Amino acid sequence: MKRLHLVGLIAVALCAASAVHAEGDKTRGRTLVYTCNGCHGVPGYSNVYPEYHVPHIAGQNEQYIVNALKSYRTKGGDRKHPTMSAQADSLSNEDIADIAAYLSSLAK
Amino acid sequence: MTRGFSLIAIGALLALTATQTFAAGDPARGKTKIATCVACHGQDGNSVDPQYPRLAGQYADYLAQALHEYKTGQRGNPVMKGFAATLSDQDITDISAYFSTMPTRLSGLEGHIQGE
Q1: A&B contacts, CB < 8 Å
Q2: Which helix (H) or strand (E) holds A52?
Q3: Mutate to test the interface with B, among A30, A42, A60 (most CBs of B within 10 A)
Q4: Is the preceding peptide bond at B103 cis, omega within 30 degrees of 0?
Q5: At what angle are helices B89-100 and B60-72 packed, to 10 degrees?
Q6: Residue A32's domain is classified under what CATH number?
Q7: Would the N or C end of chain B have less CB density within 10 A of its end CB?
Q8: Quick check: is B46 in a domain?
Q9: How close A55 gets to chain B, by Cα (Å)?
């Protein structure tokens, strides 16, 4: 019986934790993505050296966007891309959460 | 009228041919190589768990670039590095072609910014 209580508590804690995760502000995110639009809002736009299409980001999954943006940060980041690093360095954790909340809400 | 229509048809045909040449990968062959991917990214590349990216409908050349970067370690991710290490250049092109052709929930950012 006691164990059941414990399992219940853990389940509640997990739910609360994921709710906190999803806390980005979509409305604020919408104003923040203005800069992203310069590349990610140009149909067919390509990165150069090497050349490949700049990815679609509208509708992408929320936590993935958070992780990706943080990875582009110069300090401790796992992704190297000069333009994206400059952007990511200028964003706070809250900015990133808001951007991710807005972009993921655009899934078709 | 007929002439305009023929022109459009020819244009469409050219566009299709061009896309196929550009993609170079074979989606059908790619489909046979994605057994490992589907556990996290889903059979059609529309990952349900929000920590994994949707691959369906993403640009094939971007997917290929990402896989190459995981393979070389330029994009650091221990899990993806392990998987990418087992893929040849042809595998990467085929897998990227497959996911890029799946029904997508992604789009460009055009039309989604403030004031538009």
Answers
A1: 100
A2: strand A52-53
A3: A60
A4: no
A5: 140
A6: 1.10.760.10
A7: N
A8: yes
A9: 6
- A:51-80 residues touching chain B, CB 8 A cutoff: 51-64, 67-68, 71, 78-80
pLDDT of B8 > 80? The answer is: no
State the pTM of this model. 0.80
Q: What is the predicted pLDDT for the residue at B116?
A: 65
Tens digits of per-residue pLDDT, B19-43?
444 447 999 999 999 999 999 999 9
Residue of B nearest to A61 (CA): B50
Structural domain range at position B65: 25-100
For the CA atoms of B74, B54, A104, A91, the dihedral, rounded to the nearest 10 degrees, stands at 0
Rounded-to-integer distance, Cα B45 and Cα A64, Å: 14
Q: What pLDDT does B19 receive?
A: 47
Task: Quote the radius of gyration of chain A (alpha carbons, Å).
Answer: 17
B110 — contact with chain A (CB < 8 Å)?
yes
Tell me, yes or no, whether B8 lies in a domain: no
Count of structural domains, chain B: 1
- Total domains in the fold of chain A: 1
Structural domain including A76 reads: 25-104
In a domain, A43, yes or no: yes
Q: Per-block average pLDDT, block size 10, for chain A (108 residues)?
A: 59 50 86 96 94 98 98 94 97 98 97
Q: What is the CATH number of the domain that holds B94?
A: 1.10.760.10
Residue A6: predicted pLDDT: 58
pLDDT tens track for B43-102 = 999 999 999 999 999 999 999 999 999 999 999 999 999 999 999 999 999 999 999 999
The pair of structure tokens assigned to B114 is 């403030």
